Amino acid sequence: MHSRRWVEYFVDRGHSVAWLLSDDVPDDGVDPRIEVHRYRRFGPRRIPFFSSLQGRGALRALLLEVRPEILHAQYVSQYGWQARRAGFRPYVATGWGSDLLLDPSRSLRAGFWTRQVLGHAALVTVPSEQLMDVARTLGARTDRLHRIPFGVDTRAFSPSAARDAVERAGLGARPIVFSPRAIRPLYRQETVLRAIASLRQEVTLVMTARHADAVYLARLRAQAAELGMQDRVRVIDEIGKELMTNLFQAAEVVVSVPASDGLPISVLEAMACGAPVISTDLPGPREALGPHAESLVVPVGDPAALRDAIDRLLGLATSDRRALAEALRQRAVEEFDFRTWMERMEGLYFAVRAAA
Question: What percent of the residues of the chain are helix, what percent strand, and what percent coil, each to the nearest 5?
């Protein structure tokens, strides 16, 4: 999603954009103006080292065909490693979150390649202040390091009365708590489920099965059954852009409580829609929420604290809810507008090209 929004912005600006995707990544719905090129990231047999050589050769051949002025690798611990191995200059590397917060410590090899990528990039961008510090410790040069939040389209995500739309989608008339993150262990959806189970007020919890971990999803469904919550939990297979926006607009509370996070786009989208949002007490979400963070963050894996926070937001007086909604919306527009940050990125691209 982040990469798609990024490349679509630049093709809208009139730039020639080629999107290089490994053969295991879907490309459904890509803007037809974007050239999509495929390459094999690994050989037919996954043999350590030799598979990486195969991927390097495939990417090099593709780069000779496409001949870009700048190669931009989104997500350091996959495409960043490949860009460095391919030897193309100049390249830009963008860290997203876990690729800098978690992956470098998984092995000596992972740490080595992350440092190689960041140390040799013509430009490194990250979405948050926390990741600026992390990138520096991993070898990014201060003069080549920039904070570029992924941002939110504050025109598309804006406050609106959407209750009728979500009721037409079959979500009923109860207050909605929306948990938009993927159903995967990292995002601690079991914490959300336990918090909702102990709420005093009955609500409908809405999640999406998109990109779900099948085993974790099955466990979550079993947990909902044990808690007697089947009629209060809705897992929607695919939430399209329109329904996603409507859910942010109509939700009484939006919840995002992963164990690790960069600058969460779902939190920014909720803020832009004026939705009260509760997030994990981590540096990235705190940066997103700014002065409102103290009352809107909870510890990782604490269903009781999450329940209390949801309960408090559900009980807000209308005037207090409106004031919070306006403040969150204002922060999203002033600090995290997508177009503002992409304009800055465009200037950085021109600077990289001029220095090449």
Answer: 50, 15, 35
User: pLDDT digit string (tens) for 111-145?
Assistant: 999 999 999 999 999 999 999 999 999 999 999 99
Domains of the chain listed by start with CATH number = 2-151+338-355 (3.40.50.2000), 163-336 (3.40.50.2000)
Burial class (CB in 10 A: 0-12, 13-18, 19+), 68: middle
| Tokens of residue 246, six digits | 């409507």
**Is residue 184 within 8 Å of 216, Cβ to Cβ?**
yes
Which alpha helices (DSSP H) does 16-128 contain, by range?
50-66, 81-86, 98-101, 108-120
Task: Judge whether 205 and 221 are in contact, CB under 8 Å.
Answer: no
Span 3-16, average pLDDT = 92
- Residue 342's nearest CA partner among 92, 93, 10, 74 is 10
Name which of 75, 322, 301, 308 is nearest 190 in CA terms: 301
For 322, residues 6+ apart whose C-beta sits below 8 A from its C-beta are none
44: confidence class by pLDDT, cuts 50, 70, 90: low
Q: What is the pTM of this model?
A: 0.85
pLDDT band for position 53 (cuts 50, 70, 90): low
Could you please report the per-residue DSSP string of 103-155?
GGGS-HHHHHHHHHHHHH-SEEEESSHHHHHHHHHTT--GGGEEE----B-TT
* Cα distance from N-terminal residue to C-terminal residue, the chain: 29
